[in-house]
Design brief:
The chain is of the alpha/beta class. Helix content is about 35%, strand content about 20%. The protein has 2 domains: about 150 residues, ATPase, nucleotide binding domain (Nucleotidyltransferase, domain 5), CATH 3.30.420; about 190 residues, ATPase, nucleotide binding domain (Nucleotidyltransferase, domain 5, 2-Layer Sandwich). The longest helix is centred in the C-terminal third of the chain and has 25 residues. It binds adenosine monophosphate.
Amino acid sequence: MKILVINCGSSSLKYQLIDMTDEGVLAKGLVERIGIEGARIKHDTTGKERVVIEEPMNDHKKALELVLGVLVDKEHGALESMDEIGAVGHRVVHGGEDFASSVIINEAVMNALNKNIELAPLHNPPNIMGIEACKELMPNTPMVGVFDTAFHQTIPAENYIYPIPYEFYEKYKIRRYGFHGTSHKYVSLRAAEILGRDVKDLNIVTCHLGNGSSVTAIEGGKSIDTSMGFTPLEGLAMGTRSGDIDPAIIPFLMDKEGMTFDEVNNMLNKKSGVLGISGLSSDFRDLEIAAEEGNERAKLALQVFTNRVKKYVAAYAAQMCRIDVLVFTAGIGENSDVIRKMVCEGLECLNIRIDNELNKVRGKEAVINKDLASATIMVIPTNEELMIARDTLELVK
Ligand code: AMP
């Protein structure tokens, strides 16, 4: 079966067409600037030259119409007809407490998604728009929703309840949900597969370090704690997000700087993290170069970032008694030997010993621990699209 995987952002749409007979990618692409001037699609069919389509796209439906058009295009496409698409898998950011696994999308699911908008006001609406567009353009093709939060629904209450009045959990469902679940699940399963072990026998800590970053403790294949919380703002310091801060800083700044709620929210999400500390960039490539050249604030930003990863890894080691496997994934985790080294240094007490030579890898699967006595340290490129396609196949089969 051929499965189309769709990931809609507010003005973007990422897609991959995967042939599930061998899990090969037939085509993939990115639509940018939907609803904005200068909209375009960058489309790659495997084995063919890239095609760029520049055309006004007022909404996600128009974008998807053009994507489906290029997928069946005689010259640039990968399909004879749209009927070859057996199912569509949609990435959905927030499933709330309603979804602990992926689901076939039906009326009841759409109602639950709409109900969860208030939990993810920035992310869920574009996901819903993508589903609605697909329903209109491919009314007879089954669709599956795969949630970023679902993998973390196994987290026990003592790790998801916040120490604020319990009534706010009952009233508004304020609790830890966790995100990047599809990625954490994929790399943990892949780690077990590479090691030839049953994931049920392993305690794994997965570090998804990208623009947004989170760390997850996975015991016997189940997420038992994760660093992101009610929203993707909690946990690690990120590119532009603060992660954990003393909540008292917020009213203090509102008072001293006369900041409004929106301004504080914007500051914590867009102007903080390593960008905020360095005053330079949210991109770790820029920061590593600047730190190398002696920029003290870039150095400090990298130290704050890696120290926080270290703290979470150590906290999760304490929760699970031991770590068998430590996995690095996503843009930074897959590519930056500098960050991996900084995270691992000082964790020898937890039996984490990185090999500086093996660590010199970029963007491919590798085992990078020093010796057999150490916990296994791995680099595993994430593949959320494949995970979504697998779940989709499983449900529509
Ligand atoms: P992601 O959100 O997973 O796409 O990750 C994007 C981030 O990965 C970028 O903002 C960069 O900071 C980081 N990144 C990508 N390549 C490298 C690299 N070679 N070295 C350090 N950081 C990198």
